[in-house]
Amino acid sequence: MPAVKKRKVAQEAPADDSDVSSNDSEGTPQAEADSEANSQVSEEATPAAADIEAAQPAAKKSFKELGIIESLCEACETMGYKAPTPIQSESIPLALQGRDLIGLAETGSGKTAAFALPILQALMEKPQPFFGLVLAPTRELAVQISQAFEALGSTIAVRTAVIVGGMDMVSQSIALGKKPHIIVATPGRLMDHLENTRGFSLRSLKYLVMDEADRLLDLDFGPLLDKILRVLPKERRTFLFSATLSSKVESLQRASLSNPLRVSVSSSKYQTVSTLKQAFLLRPHKHKDIYLVYLLNEFAGQSAIVFTRTVHETQRLAFLLRTLGFGAIPLHGQLSQSARLGALGKFRSRSRDILVATDVAARGLDIPSVDVVLNFDLPTDSKTYIHRVGRTARAGKSGVAISFVTQYDVEIWQRIEGALGKKLDEYDAAKDEVMVLAERVSDAQRYAIMEMKNYDEKRGARGRNKFGGKRSRDEMDKDEG
Q: Both 189 and 332 in a single domain?
């Protein structure tokens, strides 16, 4: 194998992080990569991607210094983007040089602007319809990315189209007929339009982005991605962004990118920000509901996300908490698309201060000002834990994450602590104070059971997926968490 040439690039730590705000549509913290003072650049003369490791930018560069033109810099300033995040500082100059990129960074690191700004700059130089395509794993993330493109491209009146499942195909066909510059889509619905919408083609596409690529592949979109890649032009620029570089993602890289550069801003595979206070609560499974109510009372007035493992549990907890007077709203993949967007809207506007969600809400979504994350059900893998707790302590703010550990979860929790590389403290909850709530919670549990029976009967009447079989493309796009 050819020798690898490496050189050190001196980095300066920012003098003051207090004035650095998040500058991605994902509400990301500038301080997320604060672990090292040096970054290492490797130049490989091999077919594999060259690696660029960066813990933090060389200095607080401006977007103009990265090569972004004045009108887009103004759009960044309007959106409150004060300085580029590490992933933006490393990837934007390379993208402007016309290179294919693999961006490895955790959710909340500024990825959206990292690929949107170079694409918009190239679009301004040579405008054309169907210029860029962004593939996202979930509908909510697709909507969010589209909004970021529209905001950043407001000075050039960029036209975007969101093509996701759960929405009317006819109105989407009309939107495609208006020849948007940028399409943001989930793979299932995009394939439906490529096969069925007359006159729609991506043969002139210049840029392809696959965002949250590891999540796309986790949701079994691999075969659909293969089909989509076959109908795209080979002469294009491709950006692949992922939190991790699994063997599946490496296979996708080989199939879709040409001589790419790999940019990584994660100093650790499992990293949480220093402003996040993490703890666990070791209690019997039968008392979980009581302790949840106790904690929500402890954090009354603050916004909280309660993560569960299943759709059923999400809906049950929402009924339970509402019965007890909490402003809780559920978010999961079996809600209609309008209901999902409505739930997010209410939580963002603080008309509801508790979001009970499956892992639909764990990655990529811009949900600002979340004070507390409660892992009511532990995730089965450490990566998902990182994404969940990353919903709080963003943009340099502090936050709290508390995980429920029952007698059945001890091994899972030990794996999570092992991945984090540290033992976490147990949250101090006085049992005598908690059990005072037992009777009220028991009454609410009975009411929630009745509500769930009604809910399940209504869903059964609609005949949702009652014949089983393979999931449709729309069902894949739902991402039921």
A: no
Place of tokens 């996202």: 136
Rounded-to-integer distance, Cα 135 and Cα 133, Å = 7
Residue 420 lies in a domain: yes
Residues 6+ positions from 214 with CB-CB distance below 8 Å: 242, 243, 244, 246, 248, 249
* Confidence at residue 356, expressed as pLDDT on a 0 to 100 scale: 97
Q: Residues 253, 368: one domain?
A: no
Q: How many CB atoms lie within 10 A of CB 270?
A: 16
Task: Give every CB contact of residue 293 below 8 A, 6+ residues apart in sequence.
Answer: 321, 324, 437, 440, 441
pLDDT digits (tens, 9 = 90+) for 251-277: 899 989 999 999 987 645 566 778 899
Q: How many domains does the chain have?
A: 2
Host domain of residue 118? 5-264
The answer to whether residues 209 and 312 belong to one domain is no
Q: Are 31 and 273 in contact (CB under 8 A)?
A: yes
Among 87-101, 207-221, 324-338, 359-373, which is the least confidently predicted range?
Answer: 359-373
Sheet holding 304-307, edge to edge: 328-331, 354-357, 304-307, 372-375, 399-405, 276-282, 425-426
- Cα 447 to chain centroid, rounded: 34
State whether 38 and 131 are in the same domain.
Answer: yes
- Which segment of 34-43, 116-125, 252-261, 321-330 scores lowest on mean pLDDT? 34-43
Instruction: Encode 46-89 in three state secondary structure.
Output: CCCCEEEECCCCCCCCCCCCCCCCHHHHHHHHHCCCCCCCHHHH
- 261-264 vs 237-242, strand pairing mode: unpaired
| Model confidence pLDDT, tens digit, residues 435-456 | 999 999 999 999 999 999 998 8
